[in-house]
């Protein structure tokens, strides 16, 4: 394929990616099932309350207690869509544009550091993976987040290449905005500083130690400056200078049960029930913990607030110290699952197929399975496994790459490890999607290396 034909093909794929999503929005207009997920109602409630002047709250009636669980960027994005364009559904159209632009940025990165062919296929595959199609038309944070992330990666690569201040400032501002979109990014700054250190050490960027420290300090200062207004808001309202109250909640109710189950040879559900009973008992006994600021809708919602965070975190630390080996096993297991969880099931979730989770490997292998869903799952998981093999091959061929490509791959590997690690038990296509462009690009690069060596 010559360059002109490739550009035409790329344009067609990008346009088709947008039109398919626009078609989904129009075809299912007026229906709830495709556009909403478990968290969608919360984001829409936050946006609607901002519009109505009730503040940042998801409460449906007075006194509208402020919310500490969610961060402001995505509800603000939904509010602006409603305020400027007259409809929350407009946000889904914008998300469709964002994911197409993300695919184009992925193509630009891949073309410069790998090959046109790898870049072309990476962009096309990313646009049409099952979960990419699904999540981009949902009221969820993933699409804006991955768009901001891929833009920050592209701008950082430009900075490493030519050291222009505009790219440095763009990346430095985007990183805290990522944290304000999804709290999982609140620790992401060291990843980019490590990338800078690697590039400086191997002379991919001309920095002496003093300049490196200056740039690192400036990035930290900008990161803190962007987050500070939200941190002050939380301190004034709740007494905690923290980004969100979600971390201890997810740790205790999602990550701890997995390690607890492994340590005691019980199911995840059984472990969750035991730990829920324990925390309820401690909650009742600890009167101070129940004096939380915020909506008293239910005891369980109290666990989502800052006031319960210390209790949840202390119990999580207790189990960390009691079962350190099992927490390590749990984390490694879920980091692997992060790359292998299928996205096709989200379509079945949307359309109420209750038998969707019954995937019997024996029935699939012997073609005795009568439901088409397990075969679709098997095909997607096999494809993801091949990409994972490609990722491993990229790691193994790392030192055979030229120095510039090594510098970029180091950043990609750090990001893939970062997000797979911090996703924990939540490892799924829903969490992988934010780095799926990198996963596809690096995976195809590794497979291409294998092909050229055979």
Overview of the molecule:
It is a single chain. This protein is mostly helical and 454 residues long. Among the domains are: 246-333, no CATH class; 334-454, no CATH class. It has 21 helices and no strands. The chain has helices at 3-27, 40-51, 73-85, 89-113, 116-128, 130-135, 142-162, 165-181, 189-201, 209-238, 246-264, 268-285, 299-302, 306-322, 324-340, 345-350, 361-365, 372-396, 403-423, 429-432, 436-453. Helix 8 packs parallel to helix 10 and helix 9 packs antiparallel against helix 10 (209-238). The protein is globular. Mean pLDDT is 90; it is low at 292-298.
Would you count the extended β strands for me? 0
State the share of residues found in helices, binned by percent: over 70%
The rounded distance between the terminal residues' Cα atoms is: 23 Å
Number of helices: 21
Mean pLDDT: 90
- Unreliable stretches: 292-298
GO molecular function, one term: pentosyltransferase activity
InterPro entries: LipidA_mod_glycosyltrf_83, RgtA/B/C-like
Pfam family, one: PMT_2
Subcellular location: Cell membrane
Question: Could you provide a short overview of the structure?
Answer:
The protein contains 21 helices and no strands. The protein has 454 residues and is an all-alpha fold. α9 (189-201) packs antiparallel against α19.
Key terms for this structure?
single chain, 454 residues, mainly alpha, 21 helices, 72% helix, globular, transferase, pentosyltransferase activity, LipidA_mod_glycosyltrf_83
């Amino acid at each position: 394929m010559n360059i002109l034909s490739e550009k035409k093909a790329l344009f067609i794929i990008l346009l088709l990616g947008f039109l398919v999503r626009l078609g989904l929005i129009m075809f299912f207009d007026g229906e709830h099932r495709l556009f909403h997920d478990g968290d969608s109602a919360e984001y829409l409630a936050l946006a609607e309350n901002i519009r109505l002047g009730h503040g940042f709250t998801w409460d449906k009636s007075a006194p509208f207690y402020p919310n500490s669980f969610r961060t402001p960027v995505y509800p603000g994005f939904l509010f602006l869509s409603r305020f400027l364009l007259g409809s929350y559904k407009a946000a889904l159209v914008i998300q469709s544009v964002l994911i197409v632009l993300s695919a184009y940025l992925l193509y630009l990165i891949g073309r410069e550091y790998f090959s046109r062919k790898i870049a072309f296929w990476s962009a096309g595959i990313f646009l049409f993976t099952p979960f990419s199609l699904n999540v981009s038309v949902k009221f969820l944070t993933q699409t804006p987040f991955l768009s901001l992330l891929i833009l920050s990666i592209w701008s950082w690569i430009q900075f490493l290449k030519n050291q222009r201040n505009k790219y440095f400032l763009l990346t430095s501002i985007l990183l805290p905005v990522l944290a304000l979109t999804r709290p999982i990014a609140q620790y992401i700054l060291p990843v980019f500083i490590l990338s800078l250190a690697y590039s400086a050490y191997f002379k991919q960027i001309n920095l002496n130690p003093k300049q490196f420290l200056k740039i690192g300090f400036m990035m930290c200062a900008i990161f803190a400056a962007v987050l500070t207004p939200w941190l002050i808001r939380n301190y004034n309202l709740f007494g905690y200078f923290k980004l969100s109250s979600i971390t201890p909640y997810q740790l205790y109710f999602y990550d701890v049960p997995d390690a607890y189950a492994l340590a005691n040879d019980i199911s995840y559900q059984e472990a969750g029930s035991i730990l829920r009973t324990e925390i309820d008992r401690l909650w009742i006994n600890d009167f101070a913990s129940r004096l939380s600021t915020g909506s008293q809708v239910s005891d369980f919602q109290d666990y989502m607030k800052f006031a319960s965070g210390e209790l949840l975190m202390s119990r999580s630390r207790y189990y960390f110290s009691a079962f350190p080996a099992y927490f390590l096993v749990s984390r490694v297991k879920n980091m692997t699952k992060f790359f292998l969880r299928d996205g096709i099931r989200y379509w079945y979730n949307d359309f109420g197929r209750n038998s969707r989770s019954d995937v019997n490997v024996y029935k699939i292998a012997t073609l005795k399975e009568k439901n088409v869903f397990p075969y679709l799952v098997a095909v997607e998981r096999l494809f993801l496994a091949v990409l994972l093999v490609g990722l491993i091959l990229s790691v193994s061929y790392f030192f055979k790459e030229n120095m510039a490509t090594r510098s970029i791959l180091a950043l990609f590997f750090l990001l893939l490890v970062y997000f797979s690690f911090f996703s924990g038990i939540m490892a799924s296509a829903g969490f992988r999607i934010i780095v799926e462009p990198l996963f596809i690009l690096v995976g195809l690069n590794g497979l291409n290396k294998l092909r050229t060596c055979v």
